[in-house]
């Protein structure tokens, strides 16, 4: 059932999926996984009272199968390898802040999206990392089933382990569709989580400087 006229340009490559050490993302769909996810999605459509055979839904199971693989592709990627791929020795010892990183993840309780912004800071201790790698690490952890609290800690710990800096700080602000769409109480609530280490924990001025940077 391959349709190469698809507008999205997807390839299947089993060897890539077999390796958890990749740090370059490609749009990879496992054909057998796609077929099984599509079959389950057809069942779900029937179970919620839809007709999977009606025209508008005919290709939906395959689209959902590919979307789900894309939204969880972080399992295939190694965030610490991403950081290690761009390390530089440098004497710079001031706070480095990467803020307003877009986060799109899915809560593990409902498999519904949560999304918002992440702010990451660290104080180097002899080495720095290419700035584009920080958002990539956020994305790798976000593209898995998550809770916001664990996502925050995993980002901090990956930066901590690879860079061994004087401190790391991560703040995530996100809205959860599982709260917003089900029930009317918390439609506009923003959930904020933070995880810190080293100087950000020990030095109130350092922490305050970071909070000023991210506007909190
Ligand atoms: Zn949820």
Core attributes:
216 residues, GTP Cyclohydrolase I, Chain A, domain 1, single chain, five-stranded mixed beta sheet, alpha+beta, GTP Cyclohydrolase I, domain 2, 9 helices, 7 strands, two-stranded antiparallel sheet
Question: Could you explain the architecture of this structure?
Answer:
The chain has nine helices and seven strands, in the order H-H-H-H-E-E-E-E-H-E-H-E-H-E-H-H. It has 216 residues and is α+β, with helices and mostly antiparallel strands. It has two domains: 14-76, GTP Cyclohydrolase I, Chain A, domain 1 (Orthogonal Bundle), CATH 1.10.286; 86-213, GTP Cyclohydrolase I, domain 2 (2-Layer Sandwich). 39% of the residues lie in helices and 22% in strands. Strand 2 (96-107) and strand 3 form a beta hairpin. The chain has helices at 14-18, 31-47, 60-71, 79-84, 133-142, 148-163, 177-180, 199-202, 204-213; strands spanning 87-89, 96-107, 113-123, 127-129, 145-146, 167-176, 191-196. It starts with 13 loop residues before the first helix and ends with a helix. The chain is elongated and about 65 Å long. The strands form two sheets. It has a five-stranded mixed beta sheet with strand order 5-2-3-6-7, with helices on both faces. Zinc ion binds next to loops.
Can you tell me the CATH class of the largest domain? Answer: Alpha Beta
Side by side, the strands of the main sheet go 5-2-3-6-7
Shape: elongated
Instruction: Kindly report the oligomeric state of this protein.
Output: single chain
CATH homologous superfamily title of the largest domain: GTP cyclohydrolase I, C-terminal domain/NADPH-dependent 7-cyano-7-deazaguanine reductase, N-terminal domain
Number of domains: 2
Q: Pick out the low-confidence regions.
A: 1-20
CATH architecture assignment of the largest domain: 2-Layer Sandwich
Strand content: 15-25%
- CATH topology category name of the largest domain: GTP Cyclohydrolase I, domain 2
Structural class by secondary-structure content: alpha+beta
Task: State the separation between the terminal residues, measured CA to CA.
Answer: 51 Å
Write out the distinct hetero groups bound to the structure: zinc ion
Radius of gyration from CA coordinates: 20 Å
DSSP summary, beta strand count: 7
> Mean of residue pLDDT?
89
The helix-strand sequence is HHHHEEEEHEHEHEHH
Indicate the percent of residues in helices. 25-40%
- Biggest sheet details: 5 strands, mixed
Secondary structure tally, helices? 9
